[in-house]
Amino acid sequence: MITNLISLMKKYLFVLLILLLVSCQSNKKEDKKELIVANKVNEVEIEESNDSLIYKISEDSIVIGGDTLKIEAPFIYSFEGTLDDDKKIQIHISNKLTEEYGGYWKSGDLYIDGEEQVFGFGLIKNNKDNFYTGKAYYDSNDSDKTICTLKLYNLATEEMFIECIYNKKTYKIYPSKKFPSYKCYDKIDYTLFDTREAYKKGNARDYTPSRDYIFFGEILNDKSFEALSSNLKYLYIDSLTIKDHKKWKHNFGIKKSVSDDNNYKSETLYTSSPIFIDSNIYVVSGYWYHYMGGAHGLYHTSYDNYEVSTGKKIEITQILNTKDENFIEFYENKIRSDYGDAVPSTIPFANTFYILPTGITFSYAPYELVGFAGGEPHIFLSYDELKPYILKNTILDKYNSN
Q1: Rounded CA separation 206/360 (Å)
Q2: In this structure, is the dihedral angle defined by the CA atoms of residues 35, 38, 44 and 50, taken in order, positive or negative?
Q3: Beta strands, E only, 60-195
Q4: Which of 14, 110, 173, 395 is the most buried (most CB within 10 A)?
Q5: Concatenated DSSP letters of 36-95
Q6: Which residue has the higher pLDDT, 162 or 213?
Q7: Using CB atoms within 10 A of its CB, is residue 295 exposed (0-12), middle (13-18) or buried (19+)?
Q8: What 3-state DSSP class applies to 212?
Q9: Are 251 and 216 in contact (CB under 8 A)?
Q10: Under DSSP, is residue 277 helix (H, G, I), strand (E, B) or coil?
């Protein structure tokens, strides 16, 4: 009997040891799983206490200086298709931090063959819908002048496509085979001011953390675009595909003010994304925003044009004779005819432009040509108008062959 009892106890002990071993392995897996989730959110340690200026409130959200920032994977996707009369359409969609308190904004740029400019639009999603929707307008101040309505389905999957309603017809526009996706990441620099001690002393003032958002995009390596890829300095080497988008990380830089002189309201944002691509030209826009108090911040959009065959940046003086007196007179008269008395007596030459198959669009920052309410004026000049001033043997020969 005693022998049977000892044998039974050994069996129970053996079972208990197995259960204990399984439990330990399970805990190790759980610990590892939690570690991976934490690294998804950011690349710096975030304090968990709600008393801290920086703390995590959920897997994809953090609170910084009282502002809640939902972390989303940044991306750029490019789409290409054909509309009426074999018109080509291309669309570039991105998800990036926006000005004013770090919300994310899904926006895009659209170009259709024959148009005089690239059109911007925003995308929103209602809870009841399984797609994002947006509209591109000829005039952002006139909702009746719609170019097309867009619906984005199956975001960040292999089944992703855009439904485009153009001239009362519906088309499906699919991701570009040549430019299917871009790797992106946000670099967010929060300069934080710990004012809790100052509040206790009764001499603190309201503040907003200084934020610097930087959004980069990378063109995927493609054999026909090797020169372009190697010459664009801001691009990063390790390309990722759509399948890897969940691995993209955010980068936070955090520091605290060392003196009260640095305690002021400030916010800076810079984003970069493509707006037009063909076999000749690759055009990238850079949006800059800065706020230091007052009624509103300042913003400006710049454009960089690259020749695909060489990867070199194109300067306006390389393609147009801008010093020709006839060109200067033509250019100034064109602006006065578009904006009338709103422009100054001496018109500055635009310092940024972008090239399209139809012509060149020049762009001004707010206050540079007209008041802040006038936004960023765009001046389009067709190749027929520019023909007398186009320099020989330039990239424009491929668009101005007639």
Answers
A1: 46
A2: negative
A3: 61-64, 67-70, 75-82, 88-97, 104-112, 119-123, 131-139, 142-153, 161-166, 169-175, 181-192
A4: 110
A5: HHHHHH-SS--B--TTSSEEEEETTEEEETTEEEE----EEEEEEEE-GGG-EEEEEEEE
A6: 162
A7: exposed
A8: strand
A9: no
A10: strand
For residue 146, how many other CB atoms are within 10 A of its CB? 14
Please state, as a whole number, how many other Cβ atoms lie within 10 Å of the Cβ of residue 16: 10
* The two structure tokens encoding residue 295: 């009624």
Neighbours of 202 (CB within 10 A): 6
Q: What are phi and psi of 385, to 5 degrees?
A: -70, -35
* 376, 301 Cβ separation under 8 angstroms: yes
Over range 143-171, report the average pLDDT: 91
Residues 6+ apart with CB under 8 A from 42: 62, 71, 249, 250, 251, 252
Backbone torsions φ then ψ of 6, nearest 5 degrees: -65, -40
Q: How far apart are CA 81 and CA 74, in angstroms?
A: 24
Q: Which residue has the tokens 């007196």?
A: 325
Whole-angstrom distance, CA of residue 132 vs CA of residue 121:
12
How does pLDDT run across 83-98, given as a tens digit for each residue? 988 999 999 999 988 8
Q: At residue 201, what are phi and psi to the nearest 5 degrees?
A: -85, -5
**Residues of the chain by 3-state class (helix, strand, coil), percent to 5:** 25, 40, 35
Structure tokens belonging to residue 28 = 């190790």
**Backbone φ, ψ for residue 352 (5° rounding):** -145, 150
CA angle 157, 161, 165 (to 5 degrees): 155
DSSP 130: S
pLDDT digits 0-9 by tens, 246-256: 566 677 877 76
C-alpha to C-alpha distance for 181 and 197, rounded to whole angstroms: 47
Helix (H) or strand (E) holding 380: strand 378-382
A 10 A CB-CB count for 90 gives: 22
Kindly tell me the sign of the dihedral angle through the C-alpha atoms of 273, 275, 277, 282: negative
Measured between alpha carbons, how far is 276 from 115 in angstroms, rounded to an integer?
12
Q: Look up residue 18 and give its two tokens.
A: 């197995």
Contact (CB, 8 A) for 74 and 64 = no
- Which backbone phi and psi does 327 adopt, to 5 degrees? -65, -45
Cα gap 209→202, rounded to integer Å: 20
110 near 88, Cβ under 8 Å?
no
Read off the pLDDT band of 129 (50, 70, 90). very high
